[in-house]
Amino acid sequence: MQKIKISVVSYLNSKPFIYGLKHSSLMDQIDLELDIPAVCAQKLKERKVDIGLVPIAILPELTEKYIISDYCIGAVGKVASVMLYSDVPLEEIKFVLLDYQSRTSVALVKVLAKKFWKIKPEWINAGVDYENKISGSMAAVIIGDRTFGLNDKYRYAYDLAEEWQKFTGLPFVFACWT
Fold it and tell me: Which of 18, 76, 93, 125 could form a disulfide with 171 if both were Cys (CB 3.0 to 4.6 A apart)?
């Protein structure tokens, strides 16, 4: 029997899912792959995996869209791992480096900038090791475990889930099982 291929985000907030799968009686039927969110999404789109814990931003790009579980990566208020860091307040930000590991967080920061904060920065797709380029009017979206310990490094740290809740009064879902 062919194993079910599953791609799961490799961040700390996915550990309960990973633990559950690894300790499940189904583990001998599963090929579990740990990836960054963008890779989870790409593998599912290319049908390299059967199931993925994927960024919600890719749902419109999928030919078959089935959310298969009520479990997700989401937040009501602060999530502490999806952040916009800056040395200046929002209204002084001119450029935003966008995390290459994320699609949902990139879409979220753009919505917040336009509709809630009313700012129009230049968006820059970032590559590996961009985190140290935050300076002056250059801000950056950083997600996942890489955010740990950064709140004290920059003058301003905006939690995007918390900002979403301030804007809408609603929780935010970053990734779902599909």
Answer: 76
